[in-house]
């Protein structure tokens, strides 16, 4: 099955990102919410404030890390019809021009997919937290478990792993919507892409993933 990156349609959203600030960020930035796994803890949801020029699209672009999508009720109910791994959603308050919008939800798939990443062809290097252009030595990583181990090892040297090139192989992927641990995007199947375009959901576009 063919897959695409889900991205925001800049010309359609009015201003990008549509939400450039928040009335209350909740627990989004304090490290309380895990980046992987089901979120079973109690946490404070953000209250979003849209720019005045922002258009109310089916999916909103915000400051939130890309584990989370902000989508309206119709879009949420629509994607539930497709093959999606374990996910969660929460009703969220969104304000624009002093008007409260109650149709939006914060959505996440709980587990990122690693089996679609070809580690042998992907390129990882050492990097720093202060200089994001720095390219250090190439790191050989065989799988995601080894990636996590290596990440903890180089943290002690105040370094990070830089993802210079991620190569995908979707042969064993069955889901229509998922995310990976290395890119700040969701991926959608061609089936879901075509269905979204047919229903004219707004604010998003699809980027073809070049083959290695």
Structural description of this entry:
With 212 residues, the protein is α+β, with helices and mostly antiparallel strands. The chain folds into 2 domains: 150 residues, no CATH class; 43 residues, no CATH class. It is built from 4 helices and 13 strands. The strands form 3 sheets. Strands 2-3-6-7-5-4 form a 6-stranded mixed sheet. A hairpin with a 2-residue loop joins β6 and β7. The radius of gyration is 18 Å and the shape is globular. The model has no long low-confidence stretch (mean pLDDT 89).
Helix/strand-derived class? alpha+beta
What kind of sheet is the major sheet?
6 strands, mixed
Low-confidence stretches: none
The SSE string, one letter per element, is EHEEEEHEEEEHEEEHE
Work out the helicity level: 10-25%
The 3D shape can be described as globular
State the end-to-end distance: 16 Å
Q: What's the alpha carbon Rg, rounded to whole Å? A: 18 Å
Strand order of the largest sheet: 2-3-6-7-5-4
Count of alpha/pi helices: 4
Oligomer: single chain
Number of domains: 2
């Amino acid at each position: 099955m063919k897959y695409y990156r889900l991205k925001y349609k800049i010309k359609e959203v009015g201003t990008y990102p549509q939400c450039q600030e928040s009335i209350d960020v909740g627990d989004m930035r304090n490290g309380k919410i895990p980046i992987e796994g089901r979120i079973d803890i109690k946490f404070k949801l953000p209250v979003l404030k849209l720019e005045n020029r922002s258009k109310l699209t089916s999916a909103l672009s915000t400051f939130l890390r890309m584990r989370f999508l902000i989508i309206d009720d119709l879009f949420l109910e629509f994607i539930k019809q497709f093959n999606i791994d374990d996910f969660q959603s929460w009703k969220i308050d969104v304000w624009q021009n002093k008007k409260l919008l109650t149709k939006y939800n914060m959505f996440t798939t709980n587990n990122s997919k690693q089996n679609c990443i070809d580690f042998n062809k992907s390129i990882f290097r050492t990097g720093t937290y202060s200089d994001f252009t720095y390219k250090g030595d190439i790191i050989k990583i065989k799988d995601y478990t080894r990636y996590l181990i290596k990440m903890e090892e180089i943290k002690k040297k105040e370094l990070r792993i830089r993802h210079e090139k991620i190569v995908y192989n979707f042969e064993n992927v069955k889901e229509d919507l998922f995310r990976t641990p290395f890119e700040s995007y969701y991926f959608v199947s061609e089936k879901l892409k075509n269905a979204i375009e047919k229903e004219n959901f707004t604010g998003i576009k699809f980027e073809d993933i070049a083959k290695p």
